[in-house]
Write a structure and sequence with these properties.
This protein has about 650 residues and is of the alpha/beta class. Helix content is about 35%, strand content about 25%. The protein is built from 20 helices and 30 strands. The longest helix is centred in the N-terminal third of the chain and has 17 residues. The structure holds ligand 6R9.
Length: about 650
């Protein structure tokens, strides 16, 4: 067990350092204090690190039965005054956002806090001129260009609720998100660059809007100079709109619990859930978690490769960094363009200190010649982050050895759209890391593991369903327009607790390892088998690039296992490979985990944020091809056809 060894440290000193944890002993004490008195803990953090127009009357108002949570009730603020205005006196000329374009020969932008202020205020005035008021929903469908961050902040400036939809989603997905929250205006671009490709976004917008009666206006940014249709009376060019306005826009005074944004996350059933985040709690937690998890210091250059269309981009490209007065890099392109060295080139170019990416990107890059990495000077790096899915040991080691050169701690950050901020993660240089472990909860976060009967599992060296026992400031407040669904999804599995949907294990010292969605557990002949460890075993075969394992109904065993495998080396004989793969599984997990079917495929059905949609593989393998559910979030829908063909061949 981890124990504090600095008992003489006074409470006062610790309180002052709440916001910046710098030793393991310090973490242990702060964690204990946060657990003993969460209200006082968050009260202190909120009071000392933000600018408020009026302080709160009540820190926390939590109604377990109704599943309602309110933080800092009675407070008045505007989050953009915290992200921008309060830095202007000291950091006006410091770069807030470095924007790196898709094409490395195009000029980058270095946007100072002064310039950001001016651009956000102008955009806020454009929204106002177009009739947008506090509480209106604004849909943002933009590629990774500065206008995306600026628009998000402009909404927050005037109290409009932003709903960013990743600019890679289809017309159907865009329309369903616009309609669910009845957005009044859409901010879009004519098109986007993605590697060597030029995509037409406006045609997707036009198709979507045929089904969206609530949209009155579309503001279009000209990014790629496409010849697009502009619908009279509805569509307006952003450049022209900006020419009518000045750069002063008074920030709207918001209540702590006023809605800041909606962000859709795919549910296990068809309809996406619009997770609602509110102003003060989200601000406090995104700032606090950013500061500690990345150990951001003044003048550091921080880069998160996510898209702002995901929660990671909201919390850790825009809000968390700007709340801390940081310099945050925004990258428009993809890791493979012009070649597989692009990430590393950008790290060298800007001397990036903290780098935050996803395991899927790490695995993809690890598959290419190491010369793409070694060409660049990565010595500026201090902290490496991972997010989005469990990072397997092989990828962790590759990241640690080749990118961090064994000197930059890897923070494997576990969290969700619903949690608003990072929940379980090492604090670099504080928490000793352990491959594949997200390690310990941040202060203020109380995770627990439950068995299938709903009993809390005491002690260490155990596994169960991951729940959070006590609210934290950035917990999503509801599912937009459907509080019942929120209650059912998150608060009904285990009474009075937030259920994450993930399974986890807790090792002997109390470190957490997230093992994957609980629905990824397959019971074969009465044995509970997690698909993740089987996939890890398969991936150890030198010919395998990536794999996904699912269960399908089996007359005798209840369920049997099928593996979908992408090969690095296509020329290998499939029969032999099947035997070799099953031999590895047998030796690592046991013969019970051997695969009944192995399908070699060229790709896996993945969401645009890199998560394998095992639901689709399960349905296809169960011969339910007609009933695949919502596939609108897939990156490449053609993969599904290939999967169907492969599975049909063995049915
Ligand atoms: C931030 C984000 C949430 C789900 C979550 C879990 C998986 C995220 C992880 C991780 C293992 C990590 N997940 N981070 N699993 N280790 N470090 O990804 O939000 O898109 O809502 O996904 O992603 O299964 O429940 P979101």
């Amino acid at each position: 067990m981890l124990e504090s060894n600095i008992t003489e440290k006074s409470l006062k000193e610790l309180t002052e350092s709440y916001y910046s944890i710098d030793s393991l002993a310090n973490y242990i004490d702060i964690y204990r204090i946060s657990k003993e008195d969460p209200v006082d803990f968050w009260n202190t953090i909120a009071e000392r690190n933000f600018s408020w127009r009026k302080k709160w009357d009540n820190v926390l108002n939590w109604n377990k039965e109704e599943a309602t949570v309110k933080w800092f009730e009675g407070a008045k603020l505007n989050i953009t005054e915290n992200c921008i205005d309060r830095h202007l006196a000291t950091k006006g000329n410091q770069t807030a956002i470095i924007w790196e374009p898709n094409d490395p020969s195009e000029e980058a932008q270095h946007i100072t806090y002064n310039e950001l202020s001016s651009r956000v205020n102008k955009m806020a005035n454009v929204l106002k001129n177009n009739g947008i008021k506090k509480g209106d929903r604004v849909c943002v469908y933009l590629p990774m260009i500065p206008e995306l961050a600026v628009t998000v902040l402009a909404c927050a400036r005037i109290g409009a609720i932003h709903s960013v939809v990743f600019a890679g989603f289809s017309a159907t997905a865009l329309a369903s998100r616009i309609n669910d929250s009845e957005c009044k205006i859409l901010i879009a671009a004519d098109g986007s660059y993605r590697g060597a490709k030029k995509l037409n976004l406006k045609s997707i917008v036009d198709e979507a809007l045929e089904e969206c009666p609530s949209i009155e206006t579309v503001i279009v940014f000209n990014r790629v100079n496409l010849d697009i249709d502009m619908k009279a009376g509805r569509d307006r060019w952003l450049d022209k709109e900006l020419s009518y306005v000045d750069d002063v826009c008074e920030a709207e005074e918001m209540d702590a619990e006023d809605e800041l944004f909606i962000l859709y996350t795919s549910g296990s059933t068809g309809k996406p859930k619009g997770m609602v985040h509110t102003t003060a709690g989200y601000m406090v937690y995104s700032a606090f978690s950013f500061k500690n998890v990345f150990q951001y210091k003044d003048n550091d250059i921080y880069w998160c490769t996510a898209d702002i269309g995901w929660i990671t981009g909201h919390s850790y490209i825009v809000y968390g960094p700007l709340l801390n007065g940081a310099t945050t890099v925004m990258f428009e392109g993809v890791p493979s363009y012009p070649d597989y060295g692009r990430f590393w080139e950008i790290i060298e170019k800007y001397k990036v200190n903290q780098f935050y990416t996803a395991p899927t990107a790490i695995r993809a890059l690890a598959n290419h010649d190491i010369a793409f990495v070694n060409k660049y000077d990565l010595s500026s790096l201090k902290v490496l982050g991972s997010v989005g899915e469990p990072i397997n040991e092989e990828a962790w080691n590759w990241y640690n050895d080749n990118i961090g050169k064994k000197k930059s701690p890897i923070v494997d950050t576990w969290w969700q759209t619903e949690t608003g901020g990072i929940m379980i993660s090492p604090i670099p240089f504080v928490t000793p890391t352990k491959p594949t472990f997200a390690t310990l909860p941040l202060p203020g976060i109380q995770p627990t593991l439950l068995d299938s009967d709903g009993n809390e599992i005491e002690g260490n060296g155990c596994s169960g369903r991951l729940c959070i026992k006590y609210p934290w400031p950035s917990i999503a407040r509801t599912v937009y327009g459907d509080h019942q669904r929120y209650k059912d999804t998150y608060f009904s599995a285990f009474e009075g607790m937030y259920f994450t949907g993930d399974g986890a294990l807790r090792d002997e010292v109390g470190y957490y390892r997230i093992t994957g969605r609980v629905d990824d557990v397959v019971i074969v002949s009465g044995h509970n088998l997690g698909t993740a460890p089987i996939e890890n075993a398969i991936n150890e075969h030198p010919a395998v690039a990536e794999s996904a394992v699912i269960g399908f109904p089996h007359d005798i065993k209840g369920n049997a296992l099928a593996g979908f495998v992408i090969l690095k080396d296509e020329s290998r004989d499939h029969d032999n490979l099947q035997k070799e793969i099953n031999a590895i599984i047998s030796s690592q997990i046991g013969p019970i985990a051997k695969l009944d079917r192995i399908h070699f495929v060229s790709g896996l059905p993945k969401t645009r944020s890199g998560k394998i949609m095992r639901r689709i593989l399960r349905k296809v393998s169960s011969n339910e091809m007609e009933n695949l559910g919502d596939t609108s979030t897939l990156l490449d829908p053609t993969i599904v056809d290939e999967v169907i063909t492969e599975v049909k061949a063995v049915l």
